[in-house]
């Protein structure tokens, strides 16, 4: 990994790890819903020039159904997941919420397995078990404190996992890359949240119990001042815009596995930053839980490499099994690169081109 690739990973890792801290600091000066609206609106606008460039470069035209998919994806990430996330930060320690959000890829695996019938390897299952065990250790059900914040944080992480699957599936259907899909989802989601914020000013909203005052007369930009502007720009442009943008760039530049290091390091770095900046002490169970979750992330990251190493050891120590292993490798290669596979890929490409031509013919006006 060269120096440039290293910074592609280092910068978003630090930004993501500082996210909960910055949001907790800002939470005392903003309505949590207002803060959520501002950061995703500005973050989406920060990514918009890159999205416009991508759409023009790849001649992507969006249909009504495409906008519907984007709007639904934005609702899930901004209105549901991140609103719960912002509320949870105000109810418990930032480090615990940071760790929970880092577990969202594991929940994404479960969702993909259930709804998309994606394969769940043994290493994925092991990583899932380790992550869930780590979360239980951190939550410590026998001595639960800040229960509501923890539950909201856990729910936010699960919904974030749903968003990850939705973003990938809808982005592929529409023809958007990860950065463009993220940008549009942020903008649509902040718009949807803005509509709900407007409804909070209606007389019917006054019937909401006083214990939930943050949902009544939600301001839009009330907390912004010269004093809070630097913090807002850091949260919106850097943490929300640049961090997500560089995350997707890192996947393209250095690969998905290496980019996964961002969320692999976050559970360990975020509590340390919380300790230094916010003075949030780390309990023994939190430290143990972090280690277990890191092991789960490491299994996810290194699972395939470990499998290949085990196979190599097996072959070295069992010469008589070479033939069987080699036969399996040949069959796998034939399935992936054989003549039949090539024909299948060629047919698939031809069908895609045909569909695209038909789509363009319907979208473009006739010369007659």
Which value, in Å, is the CA radius of gyration? Answer: 23 Å
Biggest pleated sheet: none
* Cα end-to-end separation: 56 Å
The averaged pLDDT comes out at: 78
Number of strands: 0
Query: How would you sum up the global shape?
Result: globular
Low-confidence stretches: none
Query: Helical percent range?
Result: over 70%
Chart the SSEs and their pairings:
Layout (H helix, E strand, L loop, with lengths): L2 H15 L1 H9 L4 H26 L6 H26 L4 H9 L1 H12 L6 H18 L7 H28 L3 H22 L29 H25 L2 H4 L1 H17 L6 H34 L4 H16 L1 H25 L5
Helix pairs in contact: 1-10, 1-12, 2-5, 2-10, 3-4, 3-9, 3-10, 4-8, 4-9, 5-8, 5-12, 6-7, 6-8, 7-13, 8-9, 9-10, 12-13, 14-15
Can I get a quick summary?
This protein has 368 residues and is mainly α.
Describe the protein.
The chain is mainly α and 368 residues long. The chain has one domain (3-302). The chain has 15 helices and no strands. The chain has helices spanning 3-17, 19-27, 32-57, 64-89, 94-102, 104-115, 122-139, 147-174, 178-199, 229-253, 256-259, 261-277, 284-317, 322-337, 339-363. The relative contact order is 0.16.
Give short descriptive properties of this protein.
15 helices; 368 residues; single chain; mainly alpha
